Amino acid sequence: MLRYIVKRLLFMIITLSCTIIFVFTLLEFTPGDPAKVILGQTATEDALEAIRIQFGLNDPYIVRLGRYFAQLLRGDLGTSYITRQPIAGAIAARLPLTLTIAFYGILVGSLIGILAGTISAVKQFSLADRVLTFISLFGNSAPSFWIAMLFVLIFAVKLQVLPATGSYGFKYWILPVATIGLQASSGVTRMTRSSVLEVIRQDYIRTARSKGQVEWKVIISHALRNAFIPILTQLSTQFCGYLGGTVLVESVFAIPGIGNYVLDAVKKMDTPVVLSGIVIICAMCSIIILVVDILYAFIDPRIKATYGFGVKKKKTAKAAGGGK
Questions:
Q1: What is the value of pTM for the model shown?
Q2: Which listed residue, 138, 271, 305, 314, has the most CB atoms within 10 A of its CB?
Q3: Burial 263-289 (b: 16+ CB within 10 A, else e)
Q4: Which runs of consecutive H residues, i.e. helices, occur in the chain?
Q5: Residues 78, 89: Cα–Cα separation, whole Å
Q6: Would you say the C-alpha torsion 82, 88, 91, 92 has a positive or negative sign?
Q7: pLDDT tens figures, 185-225
Q8: Which domains occur in the chain, in start order?
Q9: How far apart are the C-alpha atoms of 79 and 169, rounded to whole Å?
Q10: Neighbouring C-beta atoms of residue 49, cutoff 10 Å
């Protein structure tokens, strides 16, 4: 298992490096002069040239790319063109907000989606199945910004029970988390339904029922556990998507998260902020995928056996038997 983790870490480093090269190259072809972004369109040519020399903008592409990798190895994300402040500090202040929204949104979505998907699978073709399927399709099809504005219109403007914008306490998190939770639960519901439907037709489910086990125990202990790997994959994919995709939700609810920070940098052509924001999001997604891959081994005994869990125990048992 240790060898598998090391391989995944190496693959994560390669993926992150390729992402940095791709984004850096893409930003290289973006029209505009960073020196004019820093000083403004009315700056003199001498002042612009001084800024280009200061930031190394006249250096060749390979030199600037290598310098950026060297900065990352030192933990330096660079300096913003607009604010002239270190990017690492700004991201560190905003990232917890984005993580909070994404985490609680996925948590709410997973609880609702797993419950709804299981009920929909067990009660296949019933009225409950049709209603839950319709709700999941609606949540999956509706854009996040539209759902967010609908929630603001209903709960903040009409009913006036929740604040529309800000991030100053528990009440301010309800609408953003509900927006992400509704969308997340839609995908989880569909994945849970299809996975549980595939599992409950297996022979071991019929065997468990024939032994007289209670139906809820059969569903939870046998069906849902064996159907959980696709659900976990869906959750990890959605969580990664919401880390970089909360920008619309953050914009509607005026939450100063990393998505809003990167979007504002794109508008102002603040290239170092855009690149560093994408690098941080990509790194966190790679870590999440690595953790999920390790969790697979603890959920599915077959994967655990494939990557070496239990191998030492078998060898030890054989050795003990031979000694006797």
A1: 0.79
A2: 271
A3: bbbeeebbbbbbbbbbbbbbbbbbebb
A4: 2-28, 34-39, 45-55, 61-73, 87-122, 127-141, 144-151, 170-199, 203-210, 215-217, 225-226, 228-245, 247-252, 258-267, 271-299, 301-306, 311-323
A5: 10
A6: negative
A7: 988 998 999 888 888 888 888 888 888 888 888 888 888 87
A8: 2-73 (no CATH), 97-269 (1.10.3720.10)
A9: 31
A10: 14
